[in-house]
Design goal:
The protein is α/β, with parallel strands linked by helices and 215 residues long. The protein is built from nine helices and six strands; from the N terminus they run βαααααβαβαβαββα. The chain has a six-stranded parallel β-sheet, with helices on both faces. The chain binds 6-O-phosphono-beta-D-glucopyranose (BG6) and magnesium ion. Residues 8-9, 19, 42-44, 46-47, 50, 75, 112-116, 136, 169 line the site of 6-O-phosphono-beta-D-glucopyranose (BG6).
Length: 215
């Protein structure tokens, strides 16, 4: 094992709720209440793919221009809600886990669908921990396509078989497996059924333990 590739939202930073609340706001501005059943499906996919799901739930058809406007509105609300975040957005156990990853001499990358990945990381003290950051600005195809993870691995100069992906979304796990990576699911094993192993979060676990569990 030579590298760990981390999804951002829901694995490294606690932003899932901020994304969701911005979609709830958008839905209500369009005249409907978002059904929470959509929340799991919104994880991991791109902003425009998320918008399509939200609009479909509300039975709304929109022109391409309206879609751009709605996506911008959602993103403005999302960024507004992040305006005062700092290290408090970093999920429990993450800092310690990144330190153990460095001690284990593994390379580290971010592989995220978000176009805001660098903006968010720049608000924290862990930005410099990563050897490379690949995000929604770097890919044509978003998760469940493996492109973002393959680009991260390439940038780290490792093969997919030499890297582990950490993901909290079903779509991200499908992407990791499709790319030939081992995958640690972060969240509930009832939902993340395709992951090689599932952890509730990154507390009480070290890089060395993950490598041992997967070998
Ligand atoms: C993913 C999130 O990481 O990024 C999704 O799980 C989000 O909820 C997607 O929609 C795109 O993010 P952004 O910041 O580009 O709108
Ligand atoms: Mg995620």
């Amino acid at each position: 094992m030579k590298a760990f590739i981390f999804d951002l939202d829901g694995v490294i930073v606690d932003t899932v709720q901020y994304h969701y609340e911005s979609w709830v706001k958008l839905a209500s501005s369009l005249g409907f209440q978002l059904n929470p059943i959509i929340q799991e499906k919104l994880k991991g996919i791109s902003r425009m793919a998320s918008l399509d799901l939200v609009l479909a739930q509300g039975g709304i058809t929109a022109t391409p221009e309206q879609k751009v406007e709605y996506a911008k509105q959602k993103n403005d609300w999302y960024l507004e809600s992040l305006s005062s975040v700092n290290d408090n957005v970093v999920l429990p156990g993450v800092k310690e886990f990144l330190i153990s990853t460095k001690e284990a001499k593994l390379k580290m990358a971010i592989g995220s669908a978000s176009k805001n990945a660098k903006t968010i990381l720049a608000k924290t003290s862990i930005y410099k921990s990563f050897d490379t950051i690949k995000d929604g600005n770097d890919v044509k195809n978003s998760k469940p396509d493996p492109e973002v993870f393959l680009k991260a691995a390439k940038s780290l100069k490792v093969k997919p078989s030499e890297a582990v992906v950490f993901e909290d979304s079903e779509k991200g796990i499908i992407a990791a497996k499709a790319g030939g990576f081992m995958c640690v699911g972060i969240g509930s094993s009832d939902v993340l059924t395709d992951a090689d192993i599932v952890m509730e979060d990154l507390t009480h676990i070290s890089a060395e333990m993950i490598v041992r569990l997967l070998s």
